[in-house]
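Minutes, project check-in
Item: structure for the 85-residue chain
Input as provided by the requester:
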Amino acid sequence: MSDTLPITEARAKFGSLVRRASHARERITITDHGEPAAVLINPQELADLEDALALALYRGRQSTETAAVGVPHDEVCARLGLERG
């Protein structure tokens, strides 16, 4: 589920929006002058998106250059500069 709110409304509801993103895994889009300006998402969802990006980038590189077979996921992320702290 997702919701879109103007920044003025989001400011007044910030705490509840953060909890919705965190617990219900909702994506909350905040707009500024009618244009998307930011999105609140669950931290695990961000990690999942970063992992998917790392894998897609790795596969893209693998298809255009000789890549080592069996490289651990953490090493792929490190090579692409997507290490998680």
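Outcome recorded: The first strand starts at residue 2 and ends at 6.
No further action items on this chain.
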